[in-house]
């Protein structure tokens, strides 16, 4: 069936419908990963967005449910150049086509994703519509697109109940703002007992569990929207418990301490972003998925100092808090998908908890 991708600037791409045939309006973002499409589809940070995969062939190794980063896919839509018709992999259990249909996610294939990505890079991230309806007048759908905003997605993606991953080592409280599974898994593999809390859990309840350390997870949407959560993060900051924060958690900790965030023109999404450790000068290739960054222009050096910087555009990629056992990063040390270069940060977090004994 013929499908259309309409952007809010009036650009129209014509392709073939994949997955659900329902119409959807969403924020259109692109991901530059060459592999890991299932992990991208099941990353809760994509809630409220439709994802363009820049790699031209997607789906060639099928779907393996063990690789999912959450219980379900989260993007509103999926946009690819070419979808593999026959996946070939001994672990494959399904095709992307069936996976999208099963979860009612609309998609489009057969369009020029390189041209689409160039538009998003030059004009910035914009809203769009995936539809099988042939519009003759675009004024009405474009009006609806311009009115669309991503809201309420943290509480939509977080766990609804507290649960525990048993371990014999340090006790870690993980605040789930839309957490990928590999964050808890990375800690659990290092022996930690991980208690995963819903995003709106009061700080008092988290601290009452007497954790050795606290992790603030990744998640979707505009960090400034989460005013109640930011107040609880401030309380966690004021405790003496070591804290490690990733992505949205990094932004929430910054906002809790008087810093500001802003939206990037087109964000960082992919498994090939270089970040520089300002202490050692070493550069790591990182996995990233975010549209907002922390402003460091007016950073109070008595509160925090930059720890990592993006080599491509010099935006902040991490902070170390002065006088506190707290460090935060904008990128994803748990990867999935992406390189494992930054997995050592979990080991650094474990050492912080040991020093705090």
TrEMBL record:
Residues 1-131 form the Carbamoyl-phosphate synthase small subunit N-terminal domain. Gene3D superfamilies: 3.40.50.880, Carbamoyl-phosphate synthase small subunit, N-terminal domain (3.50.30.20). This is Carbamoyl phosphate synthase small chain. L-glutamine binds at residues 45, 219, 221, 248, 251, 289, 291-292. SUPFAM superfamilies: Carbamoyl phosphate synthetase, small subunit N-terminal domain, Class I glutamine amidotransferase-like. Small subunit of the glutamine-dependent carbamoyl phosphate synthetase (CPSase). CPSase catalyzes the formation of carbamoyl phosphate from the ammonia moiety of glutamine, carbonate, and phosphate donated by ATP, constituting the first step of 2 biosynthetic pathways, one leading to arginine and/or urea and the other to pyrimidine nucleotides. The small subunit (glutamine amidotransferase) binds and cleaves glutamine to supply the large subunit with the substrate ammonia. GO terms for molecular function: ATP binding; carbamoyl-phosphate synthase (glutamine-hydrolyzing) activity; glutaminase activity. It is an enzyme of class 6 (ligase). Residues 1-170 are annotated as: CPSase. Its EC number is 6.3.5.5. The gene is carA. It comes from the Bacteria. Composed of two chains; the small (or glutamine) chain promotes the hydrolysis of glutamine to ammonia, which is used by the large (or ammonia) chain to synthesize carbamoyl phosphate. Tetramer of heterodimers (alpha,beta)4.
């Amino acid at each position: 069936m013929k499908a259309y991708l309409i952007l809010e600037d009036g650009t129209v791409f014509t392709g073939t419908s994949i997955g659900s045939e329902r119409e959807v309006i969403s924020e259109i973002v692109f991901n530059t990963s060459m592999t890991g499409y299932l992990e991208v589809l099941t990353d809760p940070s994509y809630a409220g967005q439709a994802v363009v995969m820049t790699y031209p062939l997607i789906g060639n190794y099928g779907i393996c449910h063990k690789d999912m980063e959450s219980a379900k896919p989260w993007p509103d839509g999926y946009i690819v150049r070419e979808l593999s018709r026959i996946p070939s992999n001994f672990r494959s259990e399904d095709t992307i086509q069936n996976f999208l249909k099963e979860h009612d996610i609309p998609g489009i294939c057969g369009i020029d994703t390189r041209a689409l990505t160039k538009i998003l890079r030059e004009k910035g991230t914009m809203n769009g519509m995936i539809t099988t309806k042939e519009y003759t007048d675009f004024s009405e759908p474009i009006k609806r697109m311009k009115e669309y905003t991503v809201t309420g997605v943290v509480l939509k993606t977080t766990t609804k109940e507290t649960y525990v991953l048993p371990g014999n080592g340090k006790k870690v409280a993980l605040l789930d703002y839309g957490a990928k599974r590999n964050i808890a898994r990375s800690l659990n593999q290092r022996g930690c007992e991980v208690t995963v809390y819903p995003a709106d859990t009061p700080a008092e309840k988290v601290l009452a569990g007497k954790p050795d350390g606290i992790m603030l997870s990744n998640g979707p949407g505009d960090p400034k929207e989460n005013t109640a959560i930011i107040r609880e993060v401030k309380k966690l900051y004021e405790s003496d418990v070591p804290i490690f924060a990733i992505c949205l958690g990094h932004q929430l900790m910054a906002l809790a301490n008087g810093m500001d965030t802003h939206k990037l023109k087109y964000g960082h999404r992919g498994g090939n972003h270089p970040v520089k450790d300002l202490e050692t000068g070493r550069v790591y290739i990182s996995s990233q998925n975010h549209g907002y960054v922390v402003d460091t222009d007016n950073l109070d050096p008595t509160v925090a100092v930059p720890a990592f910087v993006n080599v491509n555009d010099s935006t902040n990629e991490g902070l170390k808090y002065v006088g506190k056992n707290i460090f935060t990063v904008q990128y994803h040390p748990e990867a999935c998908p992406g390189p494992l270069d930054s997995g050592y940060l979990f080991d650094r977090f474990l050492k912080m908890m040991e020093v705090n004994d």
